[in-house]
Amino acid sequence: MREIKIIDDITKNGLDTLGAGYEITDDDTKADAILMRSTDLHGYEPPHGIRAIARCGAGVNNIPFDEYAHEGIVVFNTPGANANAVKELVIGLIMMTSRDVIGGMRWCRDHASDPDIFVEVEANKKAFVGREAIGRRIGIVGLGNVGSKVANACVDLGMEVYGYDPYLSVEHAWQLSRDVRRVNDLDDLCRGCDYLTIHVPSKDDTVHMIGAGQLALLNDDAVVLNYSRETIIDEPAMLAALESGHVARFATDFATPGTMTMPNTLVTPHAGAGTGEAEENCARMAIAELKDYLENGNIKNSVNYPACDLGVARAGSRIALLHANVPGMLGKITEIVGKASANVQRMTNEAAGKNAYTMFDTDEHLEPEIITSLKDVDSIWRVRVIK
Description:
- It is elongated, with a radius of gyration of 25 Å.
- 31% of the residues lie in helices and 21% in strands.
- By secondary structure, it is of the alpha/beta class.
- Helix 6 links the parallel strand 6 and strand 7.
- The chain has three domains: 115 residues, Rossmann fold (3-Layer(aba) Sandwich), CATH 3.40.50.720; 135 residues, Rossmann fold (3-Layer(aba) Sandwich); 80 residues, 2-Layer Sandwich (Alpha-Beta Plaits).
């Protein structure tokens, strides 16, 4: 029986896919893996029995995944599972910011006690005249799981859509409408846009990537939306652009002290993925990743180890090694395994950055001393005997 520690509130509609052979535990010292959402794990030291952590969501800035890699813990996320929910909210906010829907509603509520409100509405509605999105230019920063969906939806709305993503994958390129125009320079993307929406992860090269220079290139009365991460936009630059009127409205999913004091800003409570469907999709995807890793050693959607798939473990034994990506490591492994009486049926080795993963099947179980020798190799973080 494998045990899973649940952190945060995970929808029951997702947990029902755990199935036989698994049970939920409150004791992390007994757990084989952790399933979580937004809790900050910096400073948390997982017990040695934890083999994997799966985050129900795409962002993993709340997990010290590099540190955990050296403990042989694979950290998974669920890219794309909540993409449709974020896309729908972004499209809705494009409409709301174009028409000052919130301002108009607030005016009606403020005048609710006026017996002549019906007449007053007609006299004051011009204050809330907006614009239509059709035919307007929108720049989309990041064309991944969310950005590609936003781009295609904006094409369907009749907008003039431009996209910037120097790391665009083949998969997402195929998903893009042919009417999305690719731009290879961020400043060129921003120049002349009526709308700018951000959909990139927070990394060293994306922090404050939208600053005063990029905002100045937008058309007057532009609308900016950030449903990515709070670090992407330079807040003082955004405040200045809003106060000057150059940026008409800013919509963001991040209630920082800075955004809460900005004028003409719509702030949602990190609700981009806040639908029942998205939560269920994330939970199901995270559980599938955990189960495939615990049962078969396969890795998909890890942020600290490479993807690797040997299918279902059917041989006599399957061994998985989590180790540093250093020269000569594979030679050391094969030298030790070559001394075993068991025959290696198939073997794979994958690397991602500083970390690597080696997995192989044997026709019989390896002798205990062979496993011990593998564990004693410097820079092998963990040896797993899966079957």
